[in-house]
Amino acid sequence: MIFSKNEAKQKSKSPVSATKESINQLIKQGSTSSPRDTLVIDLMDEVLLFAHTQRSSDIHFEQWKENSLIRFRVDGILLDQFTLPNYLHEQLVARLKIMTQMRTDEHRVPQDGRLTFSTPDSTVDVRASIIATAYGEKIVLRILADSTRGLSLEQLGFSKDDLTNIQAAINKPWGMILATGPTGSGKTTSIYAVLQQLNTRDVNISTIEDPIESKINGVNQSQVDPPANFVFATGLRALLRQDPDIMMVGEIRDTETAKIAVNAAMTGHKLLSTLHTNDAATTIPRLIDMGIEPFLISSTLNCAIAQRLMRRVCDNCSQKETIKIDRARKILPDDIIKMLFGTNSSITLSKAVGCDKCINTGYKGRVGLFEVLSNSPAIQKLIIGRAESATIKTQAQAEGMRTIEYDGILKLKAGLSTLAEYIRVLHE
Which residues cross the membrane (predicted)? Predict the structure, then answer.
């Protein structure tokens, strides 16, 4: 469907509310060969608002052979929401291209865009990506909610000891603080929390991000632009000429970026960034693999924060269940069994049930699992000696580091999540 020029300029009135029933009713009304333009506008607006009220981080619009599907990612899990005819999906694609200022006549080349929409109490930024698939164009919308961006380190769920170690790293006049973990593990949220703490009027803070996920007053934020050859490495070089005190680069992805980052830390700057590693200790061999000399890592790394996100059990419907050790031994390694059960033969943990408050998933929200490795003199010696990550981890534990597995066990015992969720996050 092609929208008129007047419609393209139209700013639709945002709905006050949206429900699954109201959206399904619009889909039913639109299940004709030529649904009116206003219906498509209303449908898109209601899907956006409903996704936001359901705490979705992403919306997937997918076209398949027989029909199309709209799915929401909630607390890290993709959930089917709506089924609709393919021709209605195609009209939603056209509508989104207009909303995000993409080319409406391009159906083969991937496109990216942004939009904002209003809710009754806020304005929400959205990042859009469209790519061609075998059955049609697929859209993924990333909802850049501010609900976690203003959180402090204390609110993220770090233990008292971890907070002390992170604070010690922050207080150092220069050096690197790195957050590690897989995609979607909350690394940027943690780095933003550190930035918020460092954000005072007497320092110059600059960032290079891909993309800028949330704007922070007082922080000079720039976004990479690969077609213009403005990538992390070139951006970081440019920042060094901006009289920075503190720099943040969204991710250390390659050798060039890693070398510039380490050089920045060596020359008296604080540098924050993220890496993809499984635990905190693996940060060190990862940097060595990127061509960074061990003596440079030992002198510039202040701390590495490994993390995961585990779904929080719904307070409204959760129940308790007794887990016997014989059952747990079938699915968990011995070291985890020892941490979980101690000398007991059974343990009582939370159980997910499901209700209308949690979209019948049994979970609502997420809790962070953390592991903070501080670069002590003993760790520095191991780094210079090119010790394996397991050896570094053992030394860090001897110095009091709480592993991510143990942090998860403590949060299980506190009733924050379930054994099934713990296994999904750390042992699948």
Answer: none
Q: If residue 377 lies in a helix (H) or strand (E), which one and from where to where?
A: helix 377-384
State the distance between the two ends of the chain, measured CA to CA, in whole angstroms.
44
Where exactly does CATH 3.40.50.300 map onto the chain?
A: 153-427
Kindly tell me the sign of the dihedral angle through the C-alpha atoms of 183, 244, 216, 147: positive
pLDDT band for 5, please (50, 70, 90 cuts). Answer: very low
Token digits of residue 167? 């604070």
Q: Which residue has the tokens 């887990």?
A: 323
Going by C-alpha positions, the residue among 93, 82, 86, 92 that lies closest to residue 67 is: 86
What b-and-e string marks burial along 105-142, b requiring 16 or more CB atoms within 10 Å of the CB? eeeeeebebebebebeeeebbbbbbbeeeeebbbbbbb
Q: Find residue 363's DSSP bridge partners.
A: 313
- What type of residue sits at position 72? F
Tell me the CA distances in angstroms from 238 to 72, 244, 249, 260, 286, one per residue in order. 38, 10, 12, 11, 25
pLDDT category at 147 given cuts 50, 70, 90 is: low
Tokens of 315: 């307070």
Numbered ranges of CATH 3.30.450.90 in the chain: 20-143
Contact 424, 361 (CB under 8 A): no
Nearest to 197 by CA among 246, 147, 267, 131: 246
* C-alpha of 161 from chain center: 24
Local confidence band at 7 (pLDDT 50, 70, 90 cut-offs): very low
CB 208 within 8 A of CB 231: no
Q: Please give the single-letter amino acid code of residue 92.
A: L
CATH number, span 20-143: 3.30.450.90
Report the helix count and the strand count for the chain, using DSSP H and E: 17, 15
Report the half-sphere exposure of 240 (CA within 13 A, side-chain side).
18
The angle at the Cα of 180, spanning 176 to 184, to the nearest 5 degrees, equals: 135
**Given this model, what pLDDT does residue 36 score?**
80
Cα four-point dihedral sign 13, 18, 23, 26: negative
Q: What burial class does residue 281 get, using C-beta atoms within 10 Å of its C-beta: 0-12 exposed, 13-18 middle, 19+ buried? A: buried
Helix axis angle, 419-426 relative to 404-413, nearest 10°? 170
The CATH topology of domain 153-427 is: Rossmann fold (3.40.50)
* Phi, psi (rounded to 5 degrees) for 243: 50, 55
